[in-house]
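PROTEIN–LIGAND DATA SHEET

This sheet pairs a single protein chain with one bound small molecule, magnesium ion, given as SMILES. Inputs appear in the order they were entered. The predicted three-dimensional arrangement of chain and ligand is reported afterwards as a token string under its own label.
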Amino acid sequence: MIASTTLSNEKITGFAVWHLALPTVSRREHGIGPVEGTVEIVILELTSESGAKGYGEASPWSVFTGSVEACYAALDRYIRPHVVGSRICDVAAIMADARRAIVHCTEAKAALESALLDLAGRLAGVPVWALLGGKCRDTIALSCSLANPDFAADLALVERLRDDAVGIVKLKAGFRDHGFDLMRLETLRRDHPDLDIRVDFNQGLGAETAINRVRDIAALEPTFIEQPVAAHLYGLMADIRSQITVPLLADESVFGPEDMMRAVHEGICDGVSIKVMKAGGMRRAMTVAGMAEAVGLSAYGGDMFESGLAHLAGVHMIAATPAVTLGCEFYQARYYLREDILADPFPVVDGNVVVPDGPGLGIEPDLEKVRKYSVRHSLEQAA
Ligand SMILES: [Mg+2]
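PREDICTION REPORTED AS:
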């Protein structure tokens, strides 16, 4: 009685935003650009009238989704007025207001929805996955990406992954010559025949060479090949798909439900990488997954360069989405950041992410670490 009354009526009174720069362990290269030095994210903290807190993360990548500056401004300036004073449980209405308040900035909207559902879950005493419709799995197979230009370093990482029972890797390709990609894939195939190996070009191939290069990679039979060409080249994606037997996944070509509809209509892929940051929240990500499922396409749980807090939003989304069957890539908190910001370690056991069952997202950020890595912040409270 008390809890439900609180959740039904309680309002949001505090809205704090931090811009963080998190140091990383190595340089990584991708078809669309490198990541080196730090990963920059935005953290949102919502506070309720009774003092409860909810957290969300925006994880932009300037060459893929957008900039950290745009995310920070989207939350701090354009979305804040639609949130402070609103009822916590009015998630759908608040998210609709946020979408009307500012275009794009899907990562900022993902942070908002995460913080709302984390706060609602903590007040109701239930996990976020329960608010999304319930849990269809307790664990999610973890995939770790290999994107170090120093392949020897990546091979050492693979040994560590094997020790940790991680059975899936995704080889990032298309940032150097074709021979480098073939050599790495052949080496992994030969030395680790039981690994589930996927290949992701991150749009790295030019239109004139893409089909031949993808055909050569497909001959080595990775589990799937992801986004070989630029996001907008739907026709070329469809052509490539028609010439290989390995499944072709769309990533950068499909952000939200609108893109998914076009991708299905034009037949550009056999599956899709579902990301909370691309879709603009967990619920829209679930819509994309449902659309893929309805036409027989597979779905993979992708991510951006994230801390464990954004990983948790993805975990709860996948926990509540039966259609996401190809595992997840929530590896940065454990294998790429020098230090994650969660108060407890992001849960990975025997190569699987374990779905938290505690209230809200299940793990809170460590605010000492948030302050430690803060570049700037805005802590305005409602009057
Ligand atoms: Mg990708």
